[in-house]
């Protein structure tokens, strides 16, 4: 979908094509593209001359003689083609303007979402589509008026900016780019954005849009008649469409993809910390890395902690899961409860069935975690999940704490546990995907010193998290 810079480029290309050209005839090939009466549209515009083209937000405004104006919004796929009269219309031509220089201008739209609308110089600015648009960032000097307007808006800043009524000009691509440049999490409630941050949003939006408009200049230089005018060009995007890549600012973390108000959103969870909203915190790490010690520190501070291992233990006591597992693996447990030792021994002999077990257990655990996170009233809620990445649960969390431990120390800790268990734990550790996902972590802490030093590190993280939820 074209955004403001692309529409600006289309405008600049269109001006020399239509300026001072008379419309001899209009063919409306698809009436649905015209908002309002089609006959009136044709009869009013035929015989008029284009004086100029301007733009407000993503609306193109064709100014004509007789005080008439034609509004055009390209929506998803709308574009214009300048063709010779002798040429065939463009493939998806919907409206064709025959000009007085043996050229024609085709409005082309494969998906038919775009609209053309007749209006007048006197009224077009009060047209409901245009009058609701806020100012473009280029015309915002004082952010205090923005803050006043969003005083009671708790919706995420991304949704608020996309709405166009507060400020116009940022679509999905450039909102992501602007929020990234401003170090603001896309889910931050609009009314929690401070004055300094608004200043950053406005100045970054200006700079990013101008840069994009400038790169659109190359489109103009390379434009020739017959080529579509959709303003699409390569822009130097930093985050949009780059989830999974390393953040170009901190070079430490992977860019993440989430949905905000239904729109795909990419951001760096570390450069753009979530503030003013409850935080979902995950603690993960290999076996015997110190996850439960870390959980204890959170608990002591009064924050609720859910252990996914405990969730599994509880589920194993239910007849529902016991029946499923018995049926899946041909096992028989005593007391209608899963015996973990029996199951473990079975999986040591049948390692391939581990995936099958996960497919049964993971959805149930996910349901419990989701329930815990959505009902908790605490500003910081913590879940300890050993297999966070393997089970794809990382998407629930704003902050991921990975506890790292040296191989030697881990072996020492595992060996000090039950011998039979140790073998199984080592097997599990082999399939652990923490190393491959380390860039998704918000915090990576090493547990290689004393217990006191480790607790100290956790406390530091808690202090930082507390400063974000205030
Ligand atoms: Zn970053």
Give an overview of the whole structure.
By secondary structure, this protein is an alpha/beta fold. It has three domains: 127 residues, Alpha-Beta Barrel (N-terminal domain of MutM-like DNA repair proteins); 105 residues, Orthogonal Bundle (Helicase, Ruva Protein, domain 3), CATH 1.10.8.50; 191 residues, Rossmann fold, CATH 3.40.50. Helix content is 39%, strand content 19%. It has a five-stranded antiparallel β-sheet. Strands 2-9-5-4-3 form a five-stranded mixed β-sheet, covered by helices on one side. It is elongated. The two termini are 38 Å apart. The relative contact order is 0.10. The model has no long low-confidence stretch (mean pLDDT 92). Bound molecules: zinc ion (ZN). Zinc ion (ZN) binds next to loops. The site of zinc ion has 7 residues, from loops.
Task: Describe how the helices and strands are arranged.
Blueprint: H1 4-18, E1 23-28, E2 34-35, H2 38-45, E3 50-56, E4 59-64, E5 68-73, E6 79-84, E7 93-99, E8 103-108, E9 115-120, H3 128-131, H4 144-149, H5 157-162, H6 172-181, H7 195-222, E10 228-229, E11 256-260, E12 263-267, E13 279-285, H8 291-300, E14 305-307, H9 308-316, H10 319-329, H11 340-349, H12 353-375, E15 380-384, E16 399-404, H13 407-415, H14 419-431, H15 434-437, E17 443-446, H16 451-469
Parallel strand pairs: 2-9, 13-15, 13-16, 14-15, 16-17
Antiparallel strand pairs: 1-7, 3-4, 4-5, 5-9, 6-8, 6-10, 7-8, 11-12
Bound molecules: zinc ion.
Zinc ion (ZN) is lined by residues 247, 249-250, 253, 268, 270-271.
